[in-house]
Specification:
163 residues, 6 helices
Amino acid sequence: MLRLIDAINEKIGSYAGLLLVVMTFMMTWEVVARRLFNSPTSWAWPLCVQLQLVVAALAGGYCMLHKAHVRMDVFYSRLSPKKQAIMDLATFVFVLIFLGVAMWRATEMGLLSFSVLETTNVGFKPPIWHLKLIIVPLGILLFLLQEIAEFIRNLRVARGRGQ
């Protein structure tokens, strides 16, 4: 099960990272259209903002998988793997509370956004309710699953049973 969670977050995080390439091309097109042809687009900026939301939402679990989240390495890196695992276990409750509140609020926001079929107020006014209702809660869920997988691994290390 842990490998499945890892594989899902690895795949989704990799695909989310590819969206950064798409965003780069979109913004390059926008700059060329605006500067060289004096013909700015109405779609590039709002879509890039939406893609950035998708990347940020879906990358949480991927970053957790690759231990890329910020931590106090000044102290943490000097601890043995067992003590690092114990410290991670101690902070799990706080992460769980944070992700639980984030999921609750994101779902609440997503349902409200869906109820009014929310759109942006810039450019061609693309809809954003689908991002708030589906993508953000999905990203939080992936992050939560990866955190649970890390919790189980840390429990094994803290008990002296390896990785």
